[in-house]
Amino acid sequence: VTPLVLSLRQRPDQRLDLSALVPHLLAGKAAAEIERIDVQTTKHRVTVGDAFRLRFGDAGQLRIEGACDRLDRVGHEMRDGEILVEGDVGLQAGRGMRGGRLAIKGNADAWAASAMSGGSIEISGAAAERLGGPLPGETIGMRGGSVVVRGDAGERAGDRMRRGMIIIEGAAGAHAGSRMIAGTLILCRDCGAMPGYLMNRGTIVLGGDCEELSPTFVDCGSHELVAMRLIAQFAGAYSRRAASAASGKLRRLAGDMAVLGKGELFVREAG
Amino acid sequence: MPRLIANGVRVDDTFAEAFGMRATAIIITADSLRWARQAAETMTGFATSVIGCGCEAAIDRELAVRETPDGRPGVRVLLFAVSTAELQKQLQTRVGQCVLTSPGSACYAGLAGTDKLKLGNALRYFGDGWQVAKRLGERRFWRVPVMDGEFVCEATTGLTKDAVGGGNLILMGTDSRRTLAAAEAAAKAIRTVPDAIAPFPGGIARSGSKVGSNYKAPASTNDAYCPTLRGAVESALDPEIAAVLEIVIDGLTPAAVAAAMRAAMAAIVKLGPDRGVVRLGAGNYGGKLGPHHFHLKDLLP
Fold it and tell me: A205-209 — which CB contacts under 8 Å span 24+ positions?
C-alpha cells in the first residue's frame, strides 16, 4: 500500500494545526480536497497545499516528512490507521487519540498524548512537559493506550493519568506521575524529584535513581509480585528496557499518603 | 444390537447421546507446576457430575511457562454446568475457596469470547478495600493482598454456550483388572485432546447411572450394566462380561467431544480384548433427549 505523503516545503511562518490530517478524516478525500484543508492558526490562511508537497496514497497510512516543532496537534483524536512523522512535532501530538498508531521520529513538544484513550504512540526522541497530561481545566489526563518515549521526558509526565501505560526510556523530569488516578508509568532511567506526587492510585516503576522521593510514601518491603510479571511482560512488547526495569525483586512504596495513598512506587534495592 | 469388530474388540453400533452445556475455562498458575496442579485438583475434586456437584470440571492440560500470562507454570481447567447462573456460582465458589487459598496461585481467563463470567470481579471483595485493579491492554486484573503477597486474578473469563456434556463410552471386560487397564488408556488418551475433559475420578466412572429411581432421586444405578444383576434384570451384558466402566466426556465444542471419543476408542481398540475389554458401547436415551449423537462407528480408528 502506498502511503499518503506530506512533505513540509519549509519551516512555516506560523504554527500549523494539523488536527484535520488524521486517517479517518482524510478517508475518501481526493488529493485536491486534501490540499485545500486549512491548517493555519492565525488570521493568515495556510492550506495543506501551501505548506506541504502532497504525494497521494492511502490515507490510512499517512507520512509527514521534514516535520518541525511548529506542527501542532498531529494525530489529534486519531481513531485508526497509522501516522509516521519524520522530524519533530509541536504541541499536543496524539491528543485525544482513540486508536491507531502514531510514530514520531523526532521530539515532541508539551502535552503529547494528552487525554489519549487508545492506540499507541512512539516518540523516538524526547517529549516535553506534561506527557499524557490534561490541559488546564481538565480533570483527567491519559485514559488508555500506550506511549513509549525513547528519549527523555519533561516534568509531570503522566499527570492525572487514569489508565494505560507510559514508558520513558530516558530520564524523566520532576513530579512524574503527579496526581495519577490509575495506570502504569515506567521510568527506565533516572527521574527528577518526587515522582508520584499526590497520586491516588496507579503504578510507577523507577528503573534508575530518583533525585528525591516524596516523604509521604511508606515502605512496604521488597517483593517479586506476580502483577509485576504481567506488567513486565506487557511492557516488553514496547520496550525491553521497561520490561527489565519492572522485573525482579522491587521495593514497594505505597502512597501518596497525603491523599488516598493507594498508589505505588516500585524502586530497585540499593546496591 | 449389530456390532463391529476392531482388533478383536466388539463395538456396538450405537451412539453416545450428549447435551448442550454452558462452559468456561480458567488458567491457574503458581510458582511451580506442583502447586498449580494442587490448586486445580482442589477446585475440581468434587466436580464429577452436575447431578450432585453443581458442575463438572477437570484439568484440560498443563501449560508451559511460555503459554501462561505471567510466565509461570500453569494448568488450564474446564468447568461445565447446565446454566450460566450455576456456572457463575460454581466458578466463584471454587476459585474463591480453592485457588485464592492456594500458595502462590494466580488465576486468568482460559477462554476468549464475548460472553463473560465474573472471575476477579466477584472475588476482589476479599481484599476489603485494599484490592487494586490493573488494566494492561484489553485485559483487566485484580490484585488482592494476601498473606504470601498478592492474589492476581483476571476480572472476567469467557463463557461458551456451545459446550457439550455427556459424551461417553461404556467399556465391558471379562475382569475388572483388564477393564480398568483399558479405561486408564482411554482416559490418558483424552488428556491429550484439547478442550475436552473426563470429569470422573481419574477420568473413569464405575457407577454409571440411569435416569430416575425407585426412590426420590434423579438418578440411580444403571442396573442393565451391573454384572452382579445380570440374571435379575433386563441386562445389557453378555455372559462373559464381569466388569463395566464408563468414560464421560465434556467438551467446549461437539468437535472436541468427538475428538476425545475418537482418541479414547483408538486407545481401547489398540489394547485389544486380551489386555483390555472385549466390548465397547455407549449410553443414550434413544436419541430423544440430547441433540448431540456421537456414533461409535463414525469414530472408530
Answer: A205/A231, A205/A242, A205/A245, A205/A246, A205/A250, A205/A265, A205/A266, A206/A245, A206/A265, A206/A266, A206/A267, A206/A268, A207/A241, A207/A242, A207/A244, A207/A245, A207/A268, A208/A171
